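__Record contents__

***
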Amino acid sequence: MSVRTLEVDGKTITALEGETIFSAAWDSGIRIPRLCHLGGLSDVGACRLCLVEIEGQKKLQPSCLTKVAEDMVVRTDTPALHAHRKLIVELFFAERNHVCSVCVVNGACELQQLAADLGVDHIRLQPQYPKLTVDLSHDRFGLDHNRCVLCTRCVRACDEVEGAHTWDVAGRGRNSRVIADLGEPWGESASCTSCGKCIQVCPTGALFSKGKTVAEMRKDRSFLRYIVTAREKKLWIA
């Protein structure tokens, strides 16, 4: 496989042909903000936080889906991109009912951390205050639609890693919701294996373990890369 040389934020880096800008940048120590991307899962470009400027292209491009090219010049951190990302985070907060002070992952939430990194201390948009439910029908876990950002990490982890495909997204636009199977309560799902992978990959407090109170929930996403790598190397095949 051939190697491509490109420039990212003034730094010359190399990447394998077919690799994404996001992956190449992170491997070189250049951190691009993201919410829907997670190592070990396919990329869908849902959050739009990883958009970058590419010299010669008028439109911003999602770095998690854009492949590297020879002599490509990429900018990942400009005033325009910062403003763009800040607005996206404000939109996340305005669309649902995120109240960090009473969230189970307060202090360990990726959305909360992004807001802090981008300097979002208030939102300039009118909050929607939707009337959303909390599904506590499962014996071990809960789903709080108020805190969901529709990153679809849970959908992809359940499908690509666990192989159950319990989760999916129903509805359109502001009415989109993560659903179990065909929309029944999570506790009644016939496909759910109760593995808990979806809980660990969720970037917010939307999916959580029962029994956790404010700021107690901590998530471990390292298992995902371990499982995917082990399968690729056939470590579990005798």
Q: What stands out?
A: The helical segments are 21-27, 79-95, 110-118, 153-162, 197-201, 222-232. Strands lie at 3-8, 11-16, 51-54, 61-62, 73-75, 134-135, 141-144, 167-170, 177-180, 207-209. The radius of gyration is 19 Å.
